[in-house]
Write a structure and sequence with these properties.
alpha+beta
Length: 523
């Protein structure tokens, strides 16, 4: 086909399921059914938790991992699986915030994580479609072209083998544009990789329980499925910490991001990665950018996996762009750069935590001696989650780690004060705006099947949902974490908190922390 052929924008399979979850069997283990003891309790079965469990099992520790869904059923299963040291924040900003030496350490850490994944895939013989590919960073039209030169200089100063090229592989003829080339990055099928890690953990004597929600997390362990798990060390490897009420949630902010996976004829595009530098005119502190890569699909097609169009969780309305419209905008942008798409095979959304100073948080939870956290992945979850496992392993086993300091959750970065105040201001504005709002609907008969809304009734805010059969369901619309007024997410059929990113199903069950319980039922 050529670039002028029409695209079938209808999702033909797996709508709102990520490609990863739709292409493998669920990674299920038995549920916890008795009291247990472990040297290390890991909570969370995504890449951070499983890497941590794997590293500690290799170090000879007795490890137990609890996951409330299936392995990879959280945000790891919604990734696009770029394994790269090309960060979604600019190296010249990291250098400005932390200095040259720490910028070098940051680059080294993500580079080491990439190489570690490569080595473990080989060591454990994990069949996960891992391959090395080049990545390409090019300017968004809203960005100054000289910033690309600035980033090239900063990456090279940080010790990365980058270079400037004049033509981007995969772009159509005549669409010449400069880009920074990042050689030999990585990609894989993330759930196949998790399956390999999990198998290794079990082989080395670790225990894994799925369908097991950890609650009441303390320095002694946690409750799960009504049973007690005691542990010497606890690692909270959830997307956002569910053991912490306040501190960490003032250091990072939740964003929704959108993904399409479109079929392209095999051989038309090279296996590669592409990123733009982000919309500099965006109202958001974390400037939304596009990220793309190619994934093998079948004998005739590859999947072009393209993401972007981010906004703060629960705040799609701030730009008057609905969730459905964001998929349309993403499709249009992708076609403009890669005019080979046929049908959209999958689409899904995910949630990323954006740290205020660009670096994630790995280490002891502030104020705790034996509780550790891994959070703030930003758009680099594959390498950051891997780093989490490597650093936590060293902290627990008493080894020096050169990167522990730069990712310390207790750090304070004064040079990001303006961005911090802007994010806090947004949170305060939303709290006031949503509390005085008259809600989405006035009467219940305005609500169509399959739709949800916020109804104001006096001083009460009620989350209402009419299911496909027409039955009405109602809960409190107040987030049990810190009192934010929830917003309806029509894409995911969920109620989302615009303050710290807690999310709940249409029936009020908690999906994403930091909230640890569901919504109260109301009449």
């Amino acid at each position: 086909m050529n670039g002028n052929d029409p695209i079938d924008d209808k999702v033909t399979s797996g709508s709102h399921h990520s490609y990863w979850n739709d292409s493998v069997e669920p990674l299920k283990f038995s549920t916890l059914d008795s009291d247990k003891f472990a040297d290390v309790l890991v909570i969370g079965g995504g890449i951070s938790g499983l890497t941590t469990a794997y590293c500690l099992a290799r170090s000879g520790r007795k490890v137990m991992l609890l996951e409330d869904g299936n392995l990879g059923s959280g945000e790891t299963g919604r990734t696009t699986a770029h394994i790269t040291y090309a960060l979604d924040d600019r190296y010249y900003d990291i250098e400005k915030f932390f200095g040259e030496e720490k910028a070098k350490l940051t680059a080294q850490s993500h580079r080491q994580a990439l190489e570690w994944i490569n080595s473990v895939v080989t060591l454990e013989d994990i069949d996960c479609d891992f391959r090395r590919v080049d990545g390409h960073l090019f300017s968004d039209p809203t960005d100054k072209e000289e910033n690309l030169d600035k980033e090239l200089e900063a990456t090279q100063k940080a010790g990365l083998p980058t270079e400037m090229i004049d033509t981007i592989p995969g772009f159509p003829p005549g669409k010449d544009q400069r880009a920074i080339r990042y050689p030999s990055q990585g990609q894989f099928h993330v759930l196949k990789y998790l399956k390999g890690l999990a198998g290794a953990v079990i082989r080395m004597g670790g225990e894994i329980y799925t369908g097991t929600r950890a609650e009441d997390i303390t320095k002694k362990g946690a409750k799960a499925n009504g049973f007690t798990v005691r542990a010497n060390h606890i690692v909270v490897a959830t997307n956002t910490p569910v053991n912490d009420l306040f501190t960490m949630h003032t250091k990072q902010w939740p964003y929704r991001t959108y993904v399409i996976a479109a079929k392209v004829p095999k051989g038309v595009l090279p296996y590669s990665m592409w990123w733009d530098t982000g919309n500099q005119d965006s109202k958001w502190v974390a400037k939304p950018y596009h990220y793309v890569r190619l994934e093998p699909f079948d004998d005739n097609f590859d999947l072009l996996i393209s993401g972007g169009e981010d906004h703060k969780t629960g705040q799609a309305d701030e730009e008057n762009i609905t969730e459905a419209q964001r998929y349309g905008r993403l499709t249009a942008w992708t076609r403009a750069h890669f005019p080979y798409l046929t049908e959209i095979a999958y689409r899904w959304s995910g949630q990323v935590m954006e740290p205020v100073d660009s670096l994630g948080y790995i280490g002891k939870n502030p104020g705790d001696d034996n509780i550790y956290i891994i959070t703030g992945d930003s758009g680099n979850g594959m390498t950051h989650g891997t780093l989490g496992g490597l650093i936590i392993n060293d902290l627990i086993t008493g080894q020096e780690n050169p990167y522990a300091g730069i990712y310390d959750p207790s750090r304070i970065t004064l040079r990001t004060g303006f961005d911090y105040l802007k994010e806090v201001g947004n949170m305060a504005y939303r709290m006031i705006k949503d509390w005085i709002s008259s809600g989405d609907i006035k009467e219940l008969d305005e609500l169509s099947p399959g739709k949800g809304a916020i109804l104001s009734k006096g001083l009460d805010k009620i989350a209402v949902y009419r299911d496909d059969d027409g039955t009405l369901h109602s809960c409190s619309a107040i987030c049990p974490h810190m009192g934010g007024v929830l917003q309806w997410n029509d894409d995911e059929r969920s109620f989302d908190c615009p303050l710290h990113g807690s999310r709940f199903t249409a029936y009020g069950e908690v999906v994403n922390g930091p909230a640890v319980c569901g919504l109260k039922k109301v009449e």
